[in-house]
What we know:
The chain has 152 residues and is mainly α. The protein has helices at 3-30, 37-40, 44-74, 80-97, 103-125, 130-151. It is built from 6 helices and no strands. Helix 3 runs antiparallel to helix 4 (80-97), helix 3 (44-74) packs across helix 5 (103-125) and helix 4 (80-97) runs antiparallel to helix 5. The longest helix is centred in the middle third of the chain and has 31 residues, at 44-74.
Amino acid sequence: MDKKNRLKLIKYTLFFSLLQICLILLLSSIIDAGYNPEIERLNYYYKIFLALIVAPLLETFFFQFFIIEASLAILKRFNPYISISVAILFSALSFSLIHLYDLNNFFIAFISGTHFAYVYVLCRKRKLYPFLVVCLVHFNSNLFALIANEIL
C-alpha cells in the first residue's frame, strides 16, 4: 500500500469511527439499550477479547463481506443502486438479528449495521480495503462502548 492509500485508509477509518460513535451517543440518549446477559457473565478479559478482536473480524467477514458480496453477485443483473441498497439492507438486518437481546438493541444494531454496510460498499467502490476499514470502525465502536460501560 502506498503512502497516499495509507492516508486515505486512516482518514476513512477515523471519520467513520467518529461518525459511528456519534450515532451510538445519539441513539443511546434516545433509546435505552439492553444488555445481553450471556455476555455480562463472561470473564472481563474474555469479554474484551470477544468485543475487540473476535466480533469485528467475524461479524465483518460474515455480515459485510460475505452477505454484501453474495447479494451483489446475485443481484448484479438489476439496477446497481437497487442491488447496493438491497445488499446494505440485508446486511444490516442480518447484523441486527444477532444483536437481538431486546427490541431497543435490535434498532441500535440495525443503524450500526447499516453504517458498517455503507462503509463497506463505499470503500469497496473506492478500492480502499473495505474489510479492513469496517473491522477498524467496528473495533473502535466496540472500544468506545466498553469504555463508556466502565465509566457510566
